[in-house]
Amino acid sequence: MSETNMAVKSTLSKLLSLNGLCAIYKKQGPTSAHVLNEFKETLLKEAGVKNVNPRKRQKHDLKVGHGGTLDSPASGVLVVGVGKGTKMLSTMLTGSKKYTAVVELGKATDTLDATGKVILEKDFDHITRMDIEEKLKAFTGNIMQVPPLYSALKKDGQRMSHLMSTGQKVEPKPARAVTVYNLTLQEFEPPLFTLDIECGGGFYVRSLVDDLGKALSSCAHMKSLVRTKQSQFTLEEHTLHEEQWTLENVMRTLQPCPDTEQNEKQSKDKTKKKCDKKSELKCDKNLEEKSEQKSEENLVKTTKMENTT
């Protein structure tokens, strides 16, 4: 084997041995799934895998998955699970999320963001900075929120956004409990203003913006959205941009699964104990059967002796 082939094999081996979480940057436009596939394809190509098709399972496959969808128009932190990290996303991502949203007053859209069709226009000249800050108080803490119709939530196995885009009638999901830890108004230049949001899982910024517009006796939609933090991963400190998608950078920033080796050892020990237990039960059963067989033989002998007598 040539030195080049050995180097390629070594790179692929390192790549496939990775288990943990890292953060990559999702730009505006593509879906989270598309960005994830590009990330996977880039790493596999670096490892020398030819004719990469990230959507198909291959012999030398790299397992990747993301820890929470960012809508196509949104950008920012996209946490990626690699290897066994794909099964640890929900366990390791227990912290809050942070977003920066730019809101436009006076226009409401069917998607609640700038990609949708304007369905309502209302006056906003009466709205002041103080009005917004006062209304934000009602959206802080534990609140009830109705998810958008255009969302990744599913109905009958299909995404609601897909059903809506194909003209099918979709009923809104029931309001559900969500948590907003912090909600602050930053810039205010009507019709635009900027919000910084820290929230828990299941929260939709678009729904917040729509509800806030109504609370201000007007309407509004989300003009842009950036996720600046997801759990322990921040945009400034941890996120790898597209030009940084290399094995070296992933290995440098990867947060390994906790006690991966220990978990594997515990799993093996557990399996061994099960096998030992099965063997023990089988052994006991054999002894029991032999004992019963011997008892039957003794009984037969005794009966014969009695008959002879």
Walk me through what this model shows.
- The chain has 309 residues and is of the alpha+beta class.
- The chain has two domains: 1-95 and 231-259, Alpha-Beta Plaits, CATH 3.30.70; 96-229, Pseudouridine synthase (2-Layer Sandwich).
- It is 37% helix and 27% strand.
- It has eight helices and 15 strands.
- The chain has helices at 3-16, 32-46, 89-92, 129-136, 160-165, 205-215, 247-253, 260-308, and strands at residues 20-26, 64-66, 75-82, 97-105, 107-109, 118-121, 141-145, 154-155, 158-159, 176-189, 192-199, 220-230, 233-234, 239-240, 255-256.
- Strands 1, 2, 3, 4, 7, 10, 11, 12, 13, 14 and 15 form an eleven-stranded mixed sheet that branches.
- Strand 8 and strand 9 (158-159) form a beta hairpin.
- The longest helix has 49 residues, at 260-308.
- The radius of gyration is 30 Å and the shape is globular.
- This is Pseudouridylate synthase TRUB1.
- Its main location: cytoplasm.
Index terms:
single chain, globular, two-stranded antiparallel sheet, nucleus, 8 helices, Pseudouridine synthase, acetylation, 309 residues, cytoplasm, 11-stranded mixed sheet, alpha+beta, Alpha-Beta Plaits
Secondary structure elements and pairings:
Layout: H1 3-16, E1 20-26, H2 32-46, E2 64-66, E3 75-82, H3 89-92, E4 97-105, E5 107-109, E6 118-121, H4 129-136, E7 141-145, E8 154-155, E9 158-159, H5 160-165, E10 176-189, E11 192-199, H6 205-215, E12 220-230, E13 233-234, E14 239-240, H7 247-253, E15 255-256, H8 260-308
Parallel strand pairs: 1-14, 3-12
Antiparallel strand pairs: 1-3, 1-15, 2-3, 4-11, 4-12, 5-6, 7-10, 8-9, 10-11, 12-13
